[in-house]
């Protein structure tokens, strides 16, 4: 068994949360700077709910496990290549999330606006 120390179980998540809390005022001004990074952050924030819906079930369980690794039969056919899987994961997650956002979320938000 691998035993994780208190540092990894308690302090690391707490310090990460504290770092994000401290950075929030700084990050709220990114949009005003017109930097390329602010466009990326804005794009990811727009598709973030779609990423939440898509990444685990669709990308990890279906695309990576069954399609990329060939585990549809229950046995590992192709040897895992984690750097390729990592790149594929982000590409598939962002692409599918954008499509879900554009063709599902936006039309439903427009319907909601018409109701009011």
> What's the story with the biggest beta sheet?
none
Q: Specify the oligomeric state.
A: single chain
Give the beta-strand count. 0
Strand content: under 5%
In DSSP terms (H or I, runs of 4 or more residues), the helix count works out at: 5
pLDDT under 50 segments (min length 5)? none
Helix-and-strand structural type: mainly alpha
How far from one another are the termini? 57 Å
Shape: extended
Query: Helix amount, in percent?
Result: over 70%
Order of helices and strands: HHHHH
Radius of gyration: 19 Å
User: Roughly what is the average pLDDT, rounded to an integer?
Assistant: 79
How would you sum up this structure, described in words?
- The longest helix has 34 residues, at 82-115.
- Helix 4 runs antiparallel to helix 5.
- It contains five helices and no strands.
- It is 79% helix and 0% strand.
- With 116 residues, the chain is an all-alpha fold.
């Amino acid at each position: 068994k691998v035993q994780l120390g208190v540092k990894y179980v308690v302090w690391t998540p707490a310090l990460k949360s504290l770092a994000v809390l401290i950075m929030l005022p700084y990050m709220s001004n990114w949009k005003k700077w017109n930097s390329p990074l602010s466009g990326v952050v804005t794009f990811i924030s727009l598709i973030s709910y779609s990423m939440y819906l898509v990444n685990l079930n669709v990308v990890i369980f279906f695309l990576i496990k069954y399609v990329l690794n060939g585990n549809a039969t229950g046995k590992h056919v192709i040897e895992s290549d984690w750097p390729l899987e990592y790149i594929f994961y982000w590409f598939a997650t962002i692409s599918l999330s954008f499509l879900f956002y554009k063709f599902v979320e936006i039309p439903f938000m427009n319907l909601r606006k018409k109701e009011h």
